[in-house]
Structure formats: structure tokens, C-alpha cells
TrEMBL record:
One of its GO terms (molecular function) is hydroquinone:oxygen oxidoreductase activity. It comes from the Eukaryota. It catalyses: 4 hydroquinone + O2 = 4 benzosemiquinone + 2 H2O. This is Laccase. It comes from Oryza meyeriana var. granulata. Its cofactor is Cu cation. GO terms for cellular component: apoplast. Residues 60-173, 186-336, 444-570 form the Plastocyanin-like domain. Its EC number is 1.10.3.2. GO terms for biological process: lignin catabolic process. Belongs to the multicopper oxidase family. InterPro entries: Cu-oxidase-like_N, Cu-oxidase_2nd, Cu-oxidase_C, Cu-oxidase_fam, Cu_oxidase_CS, Cu_oxidase_Cu_BS, Cupredoxin, CuRO_1_LCC. NCBIfam families: laccase. Gene3D superfamilies: Cupredoxins - blue copper proteins.
Length: 587
């Protein structure tokens, strides 16, 4: 009998009580077979408790896609948009061979994967690696350590992640249940943006002119604008099929370039159980807010009458900044509906674009599970304390249309991408690539959430902040009002962090810490800093290497709203960055 047949019977044969010792020779044949099957089950389970190696191949290729009445070629992985879902279990080793068949340089970032000691495979171009050049390949090799839930992968060079992206689903170790009722089925839902134009052309033209780029033409759900978009029929777009009385887990990802997004399902409540591959205390809501790079797992109970119900994705922006106001849609279909084409469609009204109270309530509802199995290990003391102002500035640009260029800035430093990856320069002690003088606090104090100083010019540089191994770090991210205050989704590579506090206005180092939650703050890898406000995060620098931190609005990253931490090795081999792989791409 094959193992797969044995495994089918394991749940029937496994008993919580030990079987009595028996002489196989005197047992009847049926009993002997049962014991053999049980032995096979125990062996199978013992073997399966160990992690395995999972192999994937990502071919980066061009494909023609038609959306919004127009066809254009886009960059894809394996010809799919969104790209293929990468499945693994906690503890698995993952090998992904990325082969570049297009004319663009490419890298892939495994967004939210801790990459313990394996920073060579993190993916941001010129931070940890040279890009994979046309006709070349690179084998990404990393282990999923202490994580389970939903993350995402995406290109990490220029604006290629507009179409090169997909889900990462990390299942718990075999035999380990979810800390909530197991769903009947699961579904991946990837939210994004669609441009009729080529996105590389969009950003290149904007950078040449020194102005903001054109906004997208629609929001999309699993690659489609949905049944209510132009040129669409009532049957177009993603469909989620459900059965009445059953519970479904939706793994929702914001893969958009530049928009925070609301997500709703007509007629249904959502129970949040996880964000950024970290379990939460469950709470009910009818509206999710997900920033670019964030993920949210929710339980949906199919408890409505037969018919079709609209899913909607729409933008959040509470500042005078132009965004794509098109609502992307999809449909939830109940089984046994007489005719899906004729069934009534229950609509839903998206939240107002500037619905700040909904966003604040959602952010304040998020709490780490903080159970015995999944504790929240919040640093209670601080070794390194940083105050980082985030926003924009204006620098001279003789060739630009207004003779100036809008730039992104952290502590008035506009980050300049190097031509040699910082991780290689750090590992091989290559001089002249970066400097270690990134300021821990603003060099010039001002009313951060006011109109800003008269001089809006920034400093340029490839500056990093150095951290010793295993230090406890607090970073206060302070929005500025220069040109306009705006929310910023800040993503830190290589770490999860705890969001211990947030507020509106300027952070006050004497009074603001009294509002911190140091018991069960949410733990994640990307956080939305509120418009005209601040967010405080804490993490432990227990991962040696070079780790990018940047705004996940791609336009702000292009403008220079980014920096990097260099984390030293510890004293033990298990606290040391591994050597670079032999096939590491060359610039």
C-alpha cells in the first residue's frame, strides 16, 4: 500500500490512547494490517514533521493583456497576472530560479520574509544584489523561519512590480492548527492598479520633467477591473464561489504601486485574524484598510441568501494629492443561485476617499495575539532611538520643466542609489559606495507638521545607519507638512517590528511614550504613518546584513524616500551573514 493511501487512513487509525503490546504472529490478518498501517502513519507523520525543500521556477516573460478596452504587453512571471502563488510551510527551504527572458533588468523581493542571515536573496536592486540582466538567471534560496500566514513577492527595481507580483502562502507546520476555527476553503485576493500606458514610461517621463507621474486608470482585483468597469460585462472579473453556512479565509494583498486601499464585501462582515503573516486578536469589521505591501487575512461567513454580492477596492487619501478614484470590483457567488447571469447583484458603496476615522479605527483595532504559542516579544528598553522625518523636498533641476524637482526625503536626506550593491560593499569592505553618517534625528528642528522651513532643498547621499547585532531599536516615523502632509506606508526589510504608538501632530519625546502599547502591539513589516502624524515602531536587530527601509508608494521610493540599516554580525556562526552565492548577479 502506498504512503498516500496510508495517510488517508491516518486520521481514522490514530488514537489518543496507546495500543496494547501484541504478538503479531497470533493476531488475525485484519488486525495485523491495522497495526502495519498505524506504524506507517506514525512514520509518515514523523517524516513530514521535518521541513522540506520546495522548488519553483519563475520565467520573466512578456504577455499581451487586454483591460479597459485596450491591449498592451506587460511583464509577467510564467505568463500570469498576478503571478503564481508560492506555497510553503513554516520551516521549509524555498528555492526559486528566476530566469530573465525580457529586455529589462529584474530582481524579485520576497516581501516580509525575514531572510535570517540570507540577505543576498532579499532582492532590492543595488541594495543587496545587482539586477538579473536579460538572458541571465539567479537562484533565490531562503528558509521560512518562525513565520506563517500571507506575504507577497514582487519585482524590486524601477516600477516593474506593477505587474510582476504574486502571493506567498505560508502554511503552519503539519499538525499545527490555526489559532481560530479552520475555514472550509481559502482564497487569495490580490489588489492592484492598472495603467493603460507602460508604467516604465510613466515614471521615466515624470522623473525627466521633475513632476509627479500620471495616476493609474483603474484599481483591480486579481488582475481585473471587474464587472462594473468600462468594456466589461456582468460576468467579467474575479468570482469567489461560496456555499451558504460555510466559512472562508480570504488572503488579501495590496500589490498596488501608489494607493492605500479600502476593501469591502457587500452584505458580509469580515473577521481579521492575521496581518503581514502575524496572528492578531480577532475582530469584526466591514471595511479593511490595506497599504501597499501589507497583507490581511480575514474570515468571511457565507450567511446571506442566494445571489451575487459585490467586492470593492477603492482608494484612501486624506491629503490634497491626486489618486486614481476608480473602484475595482469582483463578485461573490452563492452556490445554487438559479442563474448567475440573471441573479441580482447586491451592490456596496465604497467609503469616502478621505475617510480618516475608518482608517484610524482599523489601525487601533489591530493587536497581536500575544498567546503562549505566539507571544509578542516587545523590546521594553531601547539601545538606539531614532526620530525620522519623512516627506518631500524640492531640489534644483536645470533640465526639468520648472527648473526644480520634487524629491523624497528622510531626515532631509534624499537617498541616491549606488551602482555597487551596498551589501557587497559592506561584506567586501569596498570603499566609496556608502557612508555611515545617516542622521538619527533631524539636523534642523522645525514644526514638522507645519508648512516647513523656507529652504526646501535636501541633502543627497547614499547614507546608512549602522546597528550592532541584537540591539533594541525604536524608530519614530514623523510625517512632515512640506508641500503637503501625506500618509506613508513604510516597509522595513529583514525584520518584523511592533507598532507601539501612533498619533496626530508632532511626536513629543516627553509625553507621547505614555500612550505606547508595550503589551500586545501589532507586529508587522509595513506600517502606514498617518497624514500629519507619527508612528513609533520597535524591533531587535537580530539579523545581520543590509536592510532597506523605504516608503512603499513607488513614486516616493523613486523620488528617494528611502534609507538602509547595516546590521553587524554577532559573535556566533548562527549570528553571521552567510557568504554570497556563486551565481550572485554582477553589475
Amino acid at each position: 500500500m502506498h504512503c498516500r493511501h496510508i495517510s488517508m487512513h491516518c486520521h481514522q487509525l490514530n488514537s489518543p490512547y496507546p495500543a496494547p503490546a501484541a504478538n503479531m504472529a497470533v493476531l488475525p490478518p485484519s488486525r495485523r494490517l491495522t497495526l502495519i498501517l498505524m506504524a506507517g502513519c506514525f512514520l509518515l507523520q514523523a517524516l513530514s514533521a521535518h521541513a522540506i525543500t520546495r522548488h519553483y521556477k519563475f520565467n520573466v516573460v512578456m504577455r499581451n493583456m487586454t483591460r479597459l478596452c485596450a491591449t498592451k504587453p506587460i511583464l509577467t512571471v510564467n505568463g500570469k497576472f498576478p503571478g503564481p502563488t508560492l506555497y510553503a510551510r513554516e520551516g521549509d527551504n524555498v528555492l526559486v530560479k528566476v530566469v530573465n527572458h525580457v529586455a529589462h533588468n529584474v530582481t524579485i523581493h520576497w516581501h516580509g520574509v525575514r531572510q535570517i542571515r540570507t540577505g543576498w536573496y532579499d532582492g532590492p536592486a543595488y541594495i543587496t544584489q545587482c539586477p538579473i540582466q536579460p538572458g541571465s538567471s539567479f537562484l533565490y534560496n531562503f528558509t521560512i523561519t518562525g513565520q506563517r500566514g500571507t506575504l507577497l513577492w514582487h519585482a524590486h527595481i524601477n516600477w516593474l512590480r506593477a505587474t510582476i507580483h504574486g502571493a506567498i502562502v505560508i502554511l503552519p507546520k503539519l499538525g499545527v492548527p490555526y489559532p481560530f476555527p479552520a475555514p472550509h476553503k481559502e482564497a487569495v485576493i490580490v489588489l492592484g492598479e492598472w495603467w493603460k500606458e507602460d508604467t516604465e514610461t510613466v515614471i521615466n517621463q515624470a522623473m525627466q520633467l521633475g513632476v509627479g507621474p500620471n495616476i493609474s486608470d483603474s484599481h483591480i482585483i486579481n488582475g481585473h477591473p471587474g464587472p462594473l468597469s468600462e468594456c466589461a460585462s456582468s460576468q467579467d472579473g474575479f468570482k469567489l464561489n461560496v456555499e451558504n453556512g460555510k466559512t472562508y479565509m480570504l488572503r488579501i494583498i495590496n500589490a498596488a504601486l501608489n494607493d492605500d486601499l479600502f476593501f469591502k464585501v457587500a452584505g458580509h462582515e469580515l473577521i481579521v485574524v492575521e496581518v503581514d503573516a502575524v496572528y492578531t486578536k480577532p475582530f469584526k469589521t466591514d471595511t479593511l484598510l490595506i497599504t501597499p505591501g501589507q497583507t490581511t487575512n480575514v474570515l468571511l461567513k457565507a450567511n446571506q441568501s442566494a445571489g451575487r454580492y459585490l467586492l470593492s477596492v477603492s482608494p484612501f487619501m486624506d491629503a490634497p494629492v491626486q489618486v486614481d478614484n476608480k473602484t475595482g470590483t469582483a463578485t461573490l457567488h452563492y452556490a445554487n443561485t438559479v442563474s448567475s447571469a440573471m441573479a441580482s447583484l447586491t451592490l456596496i458603496k465604497p467609503p469616502p476617499q478621505n475617510a480618516t476615522p475608518i482608517v484610524s479605527k482599523f489601525a487601533e483595532s489591530l493587536r497581536s495575539l500575544n498567546s503562549k504559542e505566539y507571544p509578542a516579544k516587545v523590546p521594553q528598553t531601547i539601545d538606539h532611538s531614532l526620530l525620522l522625518t519623512i516627506g518631500v523636498g524640492v531640489n534644483p533641476c536645470p533640465s526639468c520643466i520648472n527648473k526644480t524637482r520634487v524629491v523624497g526625503t528622510i531626515n532631509n536626506v534624499t537617498f541616491i542609489m549606488p551602482s555597487t550593491p551596498i551589501l557587497q560593499a559592506h561584506y567586501y569592505n569596498i570603499p566609496g559606495v556608502f557612508t555611515e553618517d545617516f542622521p538619527a534625528t533631524p539636523l534642523h528642528k522645525f514644526n514638522y507638521t507645519g508648512s516647513g522651513p523656507k529652504n526646501l532643498q535636501t541633502m543627497n547621499g547614499t547614507r546608512v545607519y549602522r546597528l550592532p547585532y541584537n540591539a533594541s531599536v525604536q524608530v519614530v516615523l514623523q510625517d512632515t507638512g512640506i508641500i503637503s502632509p501625506e500618509s506613508h506606508p513604510i516597509h522595513l526589510h529583514g525584520f518584523n517590528f511592533f507598532v507601539v504608538g501612533r498619533g496626530i501632530g508632532n511626536y513629543n519625546r516627553r509625553t507621547s511614550p505614555s500612550t505606547f502599547n508595550l503589551i500586545d502591539p501589532i507586529e508587522r513589516n509595513t506600517v502606514g504613518v498617518p497624514t500629519g502624524g507619527w508612528t513609533a515602531i520597535r524591533f531587535r536587530s537580530d539579523n545581520p546584513g543590509v536592510w532597506f527601509m523605504h516608503c512603499h508608494f513607488e513614486v516616493h521610493t523613486s523620488w528617494g524616500l528611502k534609507m538602509a540599516f547595516v546590521v553587524d554580525n554577532g559573535k556566533r556562526p548562527s549570528e553571521t551573514l552567510i557568504p554570497p552565492p556563486k551565481d550572485l548577479p554582477q553589475c
